[in-house]
Each structure stands twice: as structure tokens, then as C-alpha cells.
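Supplementary Note 2. Why include the ligand at all?

Several targets in our set were suspected to adopt different conformations when bound, so apo predictions alone were not considered sufficient. For every target with a known small-molecule partner we therefore ran a joint prediction. The input for zinc ion is given below.
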Amino acid sequence: MKNSNNMLHFTFLGTSSGVPTLTRNVSGLAIRNSKNKDWILVDAGEATQHRIQQAKLSLQSLVAICISHAHGDHCYGLVGLLASAGMNARTAPLTIIAPKEIQQWIEVTAQLTDLHLPYPLNFIDVTEATQILSLTDELSIQAHPLSHRVPSFAFSIIAHYTQKKLDTQALVQLGVPKGKAWGDLQHGQDIQFNQQTLKATDFTQIQTQRIHAIVGGDNDRPELLEKACQDVQLLIHESTYTQAVLDKVGSGPMHSSAKRVAEFAQQQGLSNLILTHFSPRHQDYAGQQAIAEEVRKFYQGNFYLAHDFDQFSLDDIGQLTKIEKS
Ligand SMILES: [Zn+2]
Ligand SMILES: [Zn+2]
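The joint prediction is reproduced in C-alpha cell form.
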């Protein structure tokens, strides 16, 4: 099938673990459907709304917010962002898929701070989102449980595009002239040609294209995503430390090393991997080099270490492209 222009666009809004640094904010990732402006936000660390403004994303076209887990570096920006969407006169309902503690927190904060949102929140407990859930005509989502100090989840982001294709070869063979006749068939209308009825269903075919990416929350066991990753074209996963640092820090924080994620990606034969959520100690040049070297050692696919405002596109044949900033 020929590659079309349908893609998912990813914009990293925050790539630091735990605390923001001068060059990186805490977790936030925007995933946009290239066909329209619909987008999904995964995690909303503090000040994510500033990043959203800088990335020129509109809170009006935000379809859903997914929160991977209830740690502050993944959710402290949520209430401010919801309030701003209200001030910007949003009226469309907004879906929030998150641990149930997040709903309580929003409700208590709204009550204590005189916050009245002018749009409804459609709250979905993340433990009930483990089946595929449709968000728009084209975007769906599915949550997968992970292993962390508090319940944590990854999200499959699935884009589904259907297209009606006209069998132009058959029409040319029959001598049906281009123009209105072709247009009518394409639109599902039967036509008369040489005293015959040509049925639209005989000359059109529905083609579907699927794009699937998984965005992980904090997790020390990438292998939990084995089943979810079976047909995935891109995995975005935390890599808080190198293996040497993780060994020093110990298993308490329940994070992954670059080695652990790289080995998993290699075993699964994943073609694209983006690592994020780096400890501040790995954010300078040497720290990033150490992570990259470790990944290269254990994984032969295509990989990137994300920086704030990095943008990528993923198409339906699984090609991941970094969009160079102009
Ligand atoms: Zn975190
Ligand atoms: Zn965490």
C-alpha cells in the first residue's frame, strides 16, 4: 500500500525526571493527528501549559489527557491547565484518563479554590481503560499496567484511517470517462454507462491504515509491555538512569535503566524507540552520551533520546522521522 500523509505527530513538552531543570521540564507529551488538529496529552507535569503555548498547541482542540500515574512530576500541571482551558472559553467536553486519585484531587482543588470549569470533564478511571477506547473517529487509546512505586500505566495511542479507493484501472478498461462518473462512484453512487448500471460497491474498496505507538509511564519492568508491543511501531519509554547509576541508586525508586529498555526493545524486535524522563544527572552532554552508548550496545533499531520541544512523526508504514526545527 502506498504511503499516505496520515501521521501521528509527537511533541515532547518535558523530558526531565522528578524535577524541572533549566533546559528540561517535567513530563508531558503531545500526540497530534496530522489530519486535523485533534491531540492527546500524556502527562502534565507542572508548567506543562507554558510548554503547550510555546509549542503552539491549542487547548481548544485537546481531545483527552492521560495521566500515567499520580506522582507530581507527571500531574502537578493538570489543574492549572484545566483552569486555563476554561478561561480560554472551552466548552467542549474533555476526557481525562487517569488514576482515580487524580479525580479526587481535581474535585477537592476545584472546591477549595473556587474553580468552576465551563466545560464537562469526562473522567475515566485508568484501570477501566485496559480495553481499546475510541476517542475520535480516528484516535483510540488503551492503557497497560506497569510496575512503579504507585500504580502506573502505559498508553497505546492508535490512529485508524479509512479511505475509499476507486478502482481506476477497471474504469479505464471499461472506457468510463474521468470526471463526474468517477466522482459519483467514489461518493458511493451507482452510475449508468453504455446502458449498464455500474455499482459503486464494485468499483470502490475501503482501505484502512493503522498507526500504533506506546507511551509508557514510570516503570521498572519494560517486559510487562511484551503483549502490548506486538504490533507497535514506536515505543516511548522512560530511561531515568544508566545501568551503573541504577545499580548505585538501588531498586527503590522503581525506574528503568537505558540497558533494561534497550534489551527489551531488542528482544521484541521493535523498530523505533524514544527514551525520555532522564535524571538531572544524565542531562548534560556526558550524561546523554552515556545513555546513548548503553542503548547502542543492546539495541540495533532506530532510537532517539528526547529533548524538550523535539518533534517526531510516525506514519502508517512505521517510519519515524525527527522533524528538524526551522
Ligand atoms: Zn516520573
Ligand atoms: Zn513516578
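Residues 168-202 form one domain. The pocket of zinc ion (ligand 1) is lined by residues 17, 27, 71, 73-74, 218, 277 (CB under 6 Å). Comparable summaries for the other entries are listed in the accompanying table.
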